[in-house]
Amino acid sequence: MTLDPLKPAFDPVTLAIPIFVLTIIGEIVLARMGRIKANYEARDTATSLFMGLGSTVAGLLTGGAIFAVSLWAYQYRLFDIPMTAWWAWIAIFFLEDLVYYLFHRLAHERRFWWASHVNHHTSQHYNLSTALRQTWTGGLAGTWLLWVPLVLLGFPPAMIAIQKGISLVYQYWVHTEAVRRMPAWFEAVFNTPSHHRVHHARNPRYLDSNYAGILIIWDRMFGTFVAERDDEPCRYGIVRNLGDFNILRVAFHEWMAIGRDLVTVRSVRDVLGYLFGPPGWSPDGSRDTSKSLKARWAASQAAASSPAASPAPPEAKDPEPAVP
Predict the structure, then answer these.
(1) 150 with 268, same domain?
(2) At what angle do helices 247-262 and 268-276 cross, to 10 degrees?
(3) No. of H helices and E strands in the chain?
(4) Quick one: 40 and 127 in the same domain?
(5) Looking at residue 320, what is its pLDDT?
(6) How many CA atoms lie within 13 A of 38 on its CB side?
(7) Quick one: CA dihedral 215, 218, 220, 223, positive or negative?
(8) Is the Cβ–Cβ distance between 224 and 210 less than 8 Å?
(9) What is the pLDDT of residue 322?
């Protein structure tokens, strides 16, 4: 196979589509037979599939321009990193995965990029079809710029595109409740269904955690790792669930909410806060953010675990005089 540095020789996601279809059907069948745990709802699954189809169309519309920027940047690369070198594939595996972690964290912690990512979290079910509930506006949101430094470093655009595809295919299988835990060594290093269930949960304990693509080591290193607890099952969805399956609302509801907020602004601070503050930010602090929800939850846990105040000991009394 010839590896052209400017044109990917293959697309891992396209090659994996038959596997996606067959495994979703298999998960549904096995769940109906009672062999595995998997909750499917027809309208929810249809929404995920149509979001995936729309994402593919959006990618076709914006992908050319994005790749053109990569080709332009490649002219100014610092090094010539060969696609035929084994060490180059190991390096791009780790570096691309780190960039994905940074992108994913940004997409949760800053509202402008959350608006393009939130649709992936709108399902209240967690199954293989949820993995296909992808963004329609990611290209326009510009998060792809985070990968451009890899091009400037000298990694060929085709190499980066292939590794990004491998990462997306890997992340497909972690969207399931059918797999409880992997071996401990695997859970320590890689993203797994258990870790990613936490990421999709809306329990305050679990919010804004486990941003991993393939490797969970970045979350462990940067303090965003939270382990799944058997005594607290994951509740899926977003903090305020949409309550319907309108595809356009799923795709654009947060962008529309940003627009409604921007027409009320009174200062530049308000504009910056509504666009680039954490989701839930408001000028007067009246709305909940992940940070405030987690803080309130932590306070309630602390209050519940603290021992009840002990009753005050009875006041000491003077001893009764001895009876002669």
Answers:
(1) no
(2) 160
(3) 13, 0
(4) yes
(5) 37
(6) 27
(7) negative
(8) yes
(9) 34
Tell me the average confidence (pLDDT) per consecutive run of 10 residues in the chain, 324 residues long: 77 94 97 95 96 94 92 96 96 98 98 97 97 95 96 97 97 97 98 98 97 98 97 96 94 97 96 97 95 93 72 44 32
Final residue of a domain: which of 186, 203, 225?
186
| One domain for residues 50 and 163 | yes
Provide the pLDDT for residue 6. 80
Q: Does the residue 219 lie in any domain?
A: no
Q: Report the C-alpha gap between 75 and 154 in whole angstroms.
A: 9
What residue numbers bound the domain in which 115 lies? Answer: 12-186
Number of domains, the chain = 2
Q: Tell me the C-alpha to C-alpha distance, in Å, between residue 161 and each of 30, 48, 93, 277.
A: 34, 24, 11, 30
In a domain, 138, yes or no: yes
Neighbours of 46 (CB within 10 A): 13
Q: Is the pTM of this model over 0.85?
A: yes
Q: What size, in residues, is the chain?
A: 324
| pLDDT value of position 324 | 27
Distance CA 182, CA 196 (A): 12
Distance between CA 11 and CA 124 in Å, rounded?
30
Report the SS3 class of residue 215: strand
User: What is the reported pLDDT for 256?
Assistant: 97
pLDDT at 3: 76
What values do phi and psi take at 277, rounded to 5?
-75, 175
* Amino acid residing at 159: M
Cβ 148 vs Cβ 73: under 8 Å:
yes
